[in-house]
Amino acid sequence: MSIAYRIIIILVVGLLAFSACAPFEVEKIKPDRISVSVSIPPQAYFVARVAGDLVETNILVGAGDDPHSYEPTPRQMQSISNSQVYFAIGVEFEDAWLPRFASANPGMVIVDTSAGIQHISANDAHDTEGEGEDPHIWLSPKLVKLQAQTIADTLTALDPDNQSTYQAGLDSFLDDIGRMELEIYEQFTSLSFRKFITIHPSLGYFAMDYGLEMIPVEMEGQEPGAEELSKIITLAKTNGISVIFSQKAFSSKNAQVLADEISARVVVLDPLAYEWINNMQTIAREVATSMIRN
Ligand code: ZN
Q1: Ligand 1 center to residue 155 CA distance, Å?
Q2: 224 CA from centroid of ligand 1 (Å)
Q3: Beta strands, E only, the chain
Q4: How many Å lie between the centroid of ligand 1 and the Cα of residue 276?
Q5: Residue ranges of the chain with per-residue pLDDT less than 70
Q6: 126 and 7 share a domain?
Q7: Which of 264, 251, 254 is nearest to 290 (CA)?
Q8: Helix axes 141-158, 41-51, angle to 10 degrees
């Protein structure tokens, strides 16, 4: 996301905060339900946990779409023009499409829910700034807590009459995330082998949260070269890695070739599942299971 865009978002959130404190009524939204648009299904789950049925959520990237190459349909553009808020998260298509959404619906508040989050590089787990940021911040329970807070703050600013509902929704969601984090932590704590191979590098933040090492096969959407592939094969063989993680909506041909080479099985994960808590539990269980050595 460009700097100019971030500044606009900060200004808009600032204005919202100001109008929420204004002593006389400006024009506050009093619809039956606030209409929200989000980029991916897990964000709709976050919004639902915070707001319950006070909002109606339009999801752009549906099941089976690839958020790295997605383009909105005309019908989705229509939903955008009826939305009061857009929660951006930093997936690739937003760079090209957020400015168009803003001109299609100038009244819509665009909020960057990755605000305040330190991104890691798409290449590896080292801290970085600027280009090549890893966008998969919704697959870290720790970072989802920050995103949920931003969602609650925004909805409260737009609709202060329902502040207590948003606060209660946020509190309950944060409690559930906290419990889940402990469960996940316990699954990994006794494991001495902590590496896993994944075709698409979607679990970089997750790996960082739990002290794991993600070995991606793709780098920034590119297929690995022969040399990199042979390094991965050697690493897998010497470490007895018997699982290759792949994901829905991505070709698993690569995964199968690699899996055949090292006699591994392919486990397909779904980073975009709506039922986020269940999905994170599944991801954690599969990754932990793959690390168990007899
Ligand atoms: Zn991805």
Answers
A1: 27
A2: 16
A3: 34-38, 55-59, 85-88, 109-112, 195-198, 213-216, 243-247, 265-269
A4: 16
A5: 1-31, 123-131, 220-221, 249-252
A6: yes
A7: 264
A8: 60
